[in-house]
Amino acid sequence: MQVVPGGGPHLVVIGAGIVGAATALAALREGFRVTILEPGEPGGEQAASYGNGCWLSPMSVIPPSSPGLWKKVPKFLADPLGPLAIRWSYLPRVLPWLARYLWAGWTEAKVEATARALRPLLVDAPALHKELAEEAGVGHLIERRGLAYIYENRAQFESEAMAWRIRRKVGVEWLELGADEMRQREPDLDRRYTFAALVEEGGHCRDPGAYVAALVAQARAEGAELRRQAATGFRIEEGRLRAVETGTGEVACDKAVICAGAYSRKLAAAAGSRVPLETERGYHAMVVDPGVGPRTPLMPYDGKMSVTWTDKGLRCAGQVEIAGLEAAPNWKRAEILRDHLLRSFPGLPRDLPADRVKVWMGHRPSMPDGLPCIGPSGASPDVLLAFGHGHVGLVAAPRTARLVMALLAGRRPEVAVEAFRPARFS
């Protein structure tokens, strides 16, 4: 698609992750002049977009918190290697966020309300991503083969009855597969798994880092300017944005969108919005040249991880660690993912050398209620917030960008945004 850079209002997009990249492209097509501020490499290993689970999952409507989760908090503190862990040293700082997190999933009604808000943000996501990818010349990176949740038996599936009940209520459909069909579909999978729920509308990205890099490159080809700078604040006069401040001076502009992921909280505060943004640290382990693996991306019940083929190897991603932005990674968590992968696929080599297993840790930007912040800042309608997507940043990015454009243009958004208002925390 050829777009001639226009002389429209100047928009600064802060952050070149998946949300920022999609927002920049959407803004160019709205006639904005676009500057992207990103101190790191777009699609680089420092970004959450690089190392996520690769899933484009329109069914990811269930927040991390659920009824009764509060009973497990002592275990989260005692087991530093569990699927959800909280570091003792970080507990005093995260307590207010944790209380809101637990309250958001206190009842089934609360979980269902979250699901009803999230579903319109995620629906049709594989098709929206495919369109973006093809325009950027990387259409092969987006595939739709469905996504499967796998279980050792039906009883395990039924232990998650509330989540599946709510998914059905908001329009998610799935196929239930028994042991024989699973073995035909997934011959490399361990035989202990005898039941699956296959969500056919789901898709995945074969290389999220390369995808984000391609979208940013496309934005630049269409006229966006990429500046390797970090935003530090805003100059707002009488409620109108005049400039975005950086460490090396100001960038004069008319509008700005904060898409800086887990690093957005200070910028939001500088724009008059104090929001309880936290990071859920996630890990992945990737086996290079594995030889065996799933035909459909899947998530084992016992591993609580996504397992997906990528162009660089077989990636398993997951884990939630509450430890802030500064703490060093605990690489044993990535090793747990690797070991789950080995147990799920017996044909994988048992003696993998270190150079064939790549590990990574990144920062999910998470709000305590499981919903992103999408909307105007407290200090000026010229500064919009678009961050805090938690586990759905990749899948939700295209429609988030469309909502941001509607809000900037004063149009009615295509889906309700009331639940995403940054002011809900004030």
UniProtKB/TrEMBL annotation:
Gene Ontology molecular-function annotations: oxidoreductase activity
Species classification: Bacteria, Pseudomonadati, Pseudomonadota, Alphaproteobacteria, Acetobacterales
Gene3D superfamilies with a match to the protein in the record: D-Amino Acid Oxidase, subunit A, domain 2 (3.30.9.10), FAD/NAD(P)-binding domain (3.50.50.60)
Keyword tags: Oxidoreductase
Superkingdom classification of source: Bacteria
Keyword Oxidoreductase among UniProt keywords: yes
Name by which UniProt lists this protein: D-amino-acid dehydrogenase
A GO-annotated cellular component: cytoplasm
The UniProt record lists the keyword Transmembrane helix: no
Coiled-coil zones: none
Domain FAD dependent oxidoreductase: 11-405
